[in-house]
């Protein structure tokens, strides 16, 4: 697109305008020089497609309104012009152009194919016939092409290609049909006529010997011929009477021909005769007055007579007149020029004196035109041609600067013309054509009735006759009356910023009195509306918060249309005010986003049809409200200027619109401005592929894509490397090409039309292979769209690897691979079956692993329950003080083996977790020396029994370390167990623990057994490996101990090694790294260690339990036990029943029902139960407001950390693994009950009415807050009791009693009584109530009873308490 703009910028566009009346106005001329190969333009035609062709001395050029295409004699190519000096062009009947050259004879250009054909006349002649220098051509309806030459007249048989000479003497300048089958021929020997059979039947010389006829125009309307001549002027030849009239140049008479050499003439579509002369320029003939007007073809800055020689004149269908000159190129003249009238600087008859920058314009009732220009003063004209300046003295203005008066507004009122100026308000006596004395009104210091400022802007008169004057520095003034000397009395409205009802800015730019008698004031700080009732102003400003606000606060102009809408022009668009509700405006704004060419609106004038005319910085705009369209008029349409002045406009009594600008004044009748309805054809003009331009006929590369001119090409085919391309197009409307607009759509890529504005280049990149259709539509320069689109089919080929033959190869290869796959598949079928069997085995292994995991879990649960029933009673028996020594020894042995069985069950579960990969490490700080020593002690009896020297050594006395206590116990226990298995009686075993330099811990076990053979030492940690065969039969074991130890050690991040010579025992070393305990793990309760039960037993003695049981009140707490195992349920019942009231349930669902029914003080529940498990029971009871306060202890065989954490999260207060110690269970129960009793006391102390001190955090506190609110609401009701309170809480009496008792330790009546007493105490503290009044207010009817209870609660009487 940039290249096209550059080309178009090379075209020199010059406009010359005559400014008197429209009939004498030359509209617009355009000279095109930059792209012409030669400025001598001999012939101009427009082909059937709409392109303009210029024949020049340098070749043939095609013009599309934007750029030129050149055809010239190029000997580097095949078929081309025999001469590039073009003399004449003629549209042919066979879609071609006939080209007559000055030295190369006849050629033809085919518009469809772009081919050039040459027609040399090789016939020998002896008469001097010149076949190479062609002056005229006429393509007839027959097979004959008539050709006039510099010397002769001939015709060409278009079928046979043969020439026939008709005359060898004449200079044949022009050939025209006579309309009857014959032909008129202009020669240097007069006017000749030929019949249809080409017989020269008549000749006319018009009384002039050897008259030289240069051109012919057949005027059918007048039945005459207009003949151009050499030296004889213009001849009118009447075909009926054969009379003729000669029009010649007369010296000193501007209404006659400018020259007698009338070389080219044209009768345009409006019947106007144009006469182009050789040396006298262009003339326009007025047939009514039979006078001539010379049209000056001038180029500013260039002074030459080249433009006085007119070589060709041509009119196109759109009404443009093209004039070719001998050296100044081509001029363009619009016959349908819009009727804009102008007054400017270079006009011939009505030139402005001084400045052309018009600041204001006015037509008074006497049809005098008043103007004020910047720096040029105030002037008027009665004939709108000669202007007279008003001379104004500055006598009244002391020290006035030497500046001219400049007016911004005029108003005729009676016999006076009021003029607002930059130096004050002027009143001029203006009657008829006479303009007399003037008066100047300026501000008077401290004057209350003088005008507010010197610089005045606009003047209007309202419906009551009051004249309002806007000022630039003093706000608004109005004339309220006149004194005895007829001097105006002023009232001023000064700005008061931020004051409601006042003007908000001192600069009043425009005023308007609308049809509803409202006064609108435009300022530089918003739009104001005058309110006569209050003598104040309502202000409307731009606001981003209001959708209907004006678009800008700087109001430049105001107008009202026929529908009562107010139009406000601003620095940012125009605003249409359609409604006013007394508070807000209904506004629609239009800016450049909506189609305005410029946002700066200088002036607005509505016409009778509802169109809105506006002057801007980019010409005059006409806005059509019916379809919201904008028409733009600039210099090319006849407008004087494109930059206009602020508020410089006027509408006179005749209906003319006036707009002032920096280059003068433009005025017009709005109804006379017609929009062109011409629908320009559109063509594709340029093709660029991969940044390479393609043009037919310019090289070899284009033959691949283009086999004819691109504008005639209907489709192109691109390969996969050519999918980056650009297409340029042009609408053939030559009035103002840069105002033509375009839209396009590429079918297959774009879903909707894309508006391109005046950009006429579209580019596409990386389109997928396929067929696309590019459609383009265009508008003319007045934005009238041609509904028909021009289309180009674009086919992008796929790359070779995506073509049909490529896919055929792919299919063949696929079929081969399919066969090969089948062949190989059959050979590997056996392997697939083996893989299937392996997969089934793996699935079976997974199922077996899942089964084992469930089996071990269930076994653990089943083992733990009977172990609990064994260890629990054993612990109870061993706590008795008086036991037989032999019995106690047996019981100790049973206890030891039971605990050993429990450890085995735990190890079995851990092994299963390790095998499944789900075993997790639970680090906990501990003291390593005492921990390992405690495990070693367990083997003391075994060492004594077998006389084994068993020692434990450590370099450190204490070693603080982070480790998993349960798993490290398994590691050490298994290694020691293994050492005792393989150490004979009387041997030795040494255990040592030491801290290494890297802070790691090393545990070693050295034995004196038989050792490990060297070939087996690397396999002892393998699963199920049991060593030598003789050992397998004599020593029991499973072969998984050391393997499990290794896994647990590696889980710690440590290592285990074994050393042995196979003879002298073995050394096992476990090295554990120093690990950091995460805070989250430290806060999670760890699994209880089984060996710690012995420590607990040492601290739990019967004396402590006896003391705690004595603290239990006579009213025994209720304990709910939920257990599905009958023996376990009975065992727990026996433990608890001596100290508590026990209620039992055999499953979770029954446990929930009994908990809700009885509201126990504590619940002991198993976890694994049918129907509802212990976790679900805990969750439901803790989420129920009635049972949320009940502590819950969970007993379970699921002793791993994951289940432990889950139980605590669900709300359990204590989580005890089975088997459990009965005394530990009792301690937990007693602690929880004591905690609940402490809460009861706390809640009982907080029963204070009206304090609002409860911060609700739990269900219990919410329960108490609700109770206190209900009691407070009924405090004065002496009959309010426990039953009423239970009903208000929507609870049964028994449930309410148990809930309240559990929370506060009080019954309902006790709670109410306590609340009443507390309330009475508050009343007494206030000092406003007597004892009796306080008692009645608190709901006590019996004063004696009140005194008694008050004494019990507060230990003082009410009277003393009051003191």
TrEMBL record:
MF (Gene Ontology): ATP binding; DNA-binding transcription factor activity; phosphorelay sensor kinase activity; sequence-specific DNA binding
Key words of the record: ATP-binding, DNA-binding, Kinase, Membrane, Nucleotide-binding, Phosphoprotein, Signal, Transcription, Transcription regulation, Transferase, Transmembrane, Transmembrane helix, Two-component regulatory system
Entry EC number(s): 2.7.13.3
One Pfam family cited in the UniProt record for this chain: Reg_prop
Stretches assigned to the HTH araC/xylS-type domain: 1265-1363
Protein name in the entry: histidine kinase
Residue ranges of every copy of the Response regulatory domain listed in the record: 1118-1233
Catalytic class of the enzyme: transferase
Sequence ranges assigned to domain Histidine kinase in this UniProt record: 858-1076
